[in-house]
Each structure stands twice: as structure tokens, then as C-alpha cells.
Specification:
By secondary structure, the chain is an alpha+beta fold. The chain has helices spanning 10-16, 22-42, 54-62; strands at residues 85-93, 102-109, 119-124, 134-140, 147-154, 157-164, 177-186, 189-196. The longest helix has 21 residues, at 22-42. The radius of gyration is 34 Å and the shape is globular.
Amino acid sequence: MLHSPAEPNPALDDLAHRHARPLHWLATATAMAAVVAAAGFLQPANGAAGTPTATAAQPAANGPQATAPDPAGVTYPLDCKGAPQTVTATADGDLDGDGRPETVAAVRCEAGSGTPPHAIYVLTQDRAEGSRPRVVATLLDTPQRQSVTELTVRDHVVTASLLGYSTPQIPRCCPDKKQLSKWRWSDAKFRQELTDSPATRV
């Protein structure tokens, strides 16, 4: 703490100009050595003693981290005409900035041949105990006839690599168009940014 300068004290000036006796210096040195030794003794060894820091106590104060919804066992709004549904890729992250992660799942019908198109769904889970994951948004639907090859969530953005067809005449086995799609939550909805690659046989 800083203090304002005091008025000059003649007694202190006088002490500053006196010659100290040898016995006085010996007593002063002994007292200083005792203070230094006491300070070293009270110092915790390797941080093992003393009061815990705020950083060490932070995880307990915040509690366990929220987990992303489990995509297994969710009924997706995908009509497979009786065929099973298959989750081929998932990614998770906090998409709306509320501190709780969502799960993004790429799902398609399990077919014996061909390349069934994908749908991409966003899953969330209520805070209530015993609540189950549920679909809250569809980012990609099967009528778009695209397949997902990569799916990531980073910095609140969903990114997917999509394979499709430039014309209806392209065989369903051999997509010739590639796109990079990004979805970002903004103004209470997901907004898509789509980048086309030159049409080529993939």
C-alpha cells in the first residue's frame, strides 16, 4: 500500500549519521537470518501444502461436463420402406452457444446395392433426468440425393463433404459432383453456405 510522504524527522536523520557499533551489526545480522529461515520454513514444499488455488478448485465448482446426445436408438424421420436405418457418421459440439453440446448425425437407409442418399440431423437432449435425445433440425434431406463423406463440428459450425450427381443420367453408383457445405446457427435457424467443386467423376 502506498503512503503519503511524512514530514522530515530530525531523530531519523540523526540515526542515519551515527556510526554503528560492532555489537549492533552482529545483533542485526542474527535477527535477519532468523527472519529468512522462518520464511523458508513456512513456504509449502513443491506446492504440497497451503490453500488450494482457484484453478484447482474450478472443476468441482462447475460440476461434470454435459455430454452430447447419443445417436444410437433415436428414431429418425427417414422413410426406408421397411429397411433398417444406418448412422454412418457423427460429430458433436455446442452449436447454439448455450454451453451444452449437440450431436450431428449422417443417416441413410441400409440397402443391398447402390448408394442410398444421406440425411443429416441435429440431435439435442433436455436437461431433465431420464430425457432421451431427439431430432430438432434436418440439415440435409434425402430428396437432394447426396452422400456424406466427411462430417465435423468446429467453432459452432457443421461442415460436411457431399457427393452428388450433375445430371439425372449419371448412374447412382458413381457420383460426379462434390460440394462442401457449412451450416451455422444464426437468428434462430441454421443457415447454409455451399461451395461447389468442378463436376468430375468421384
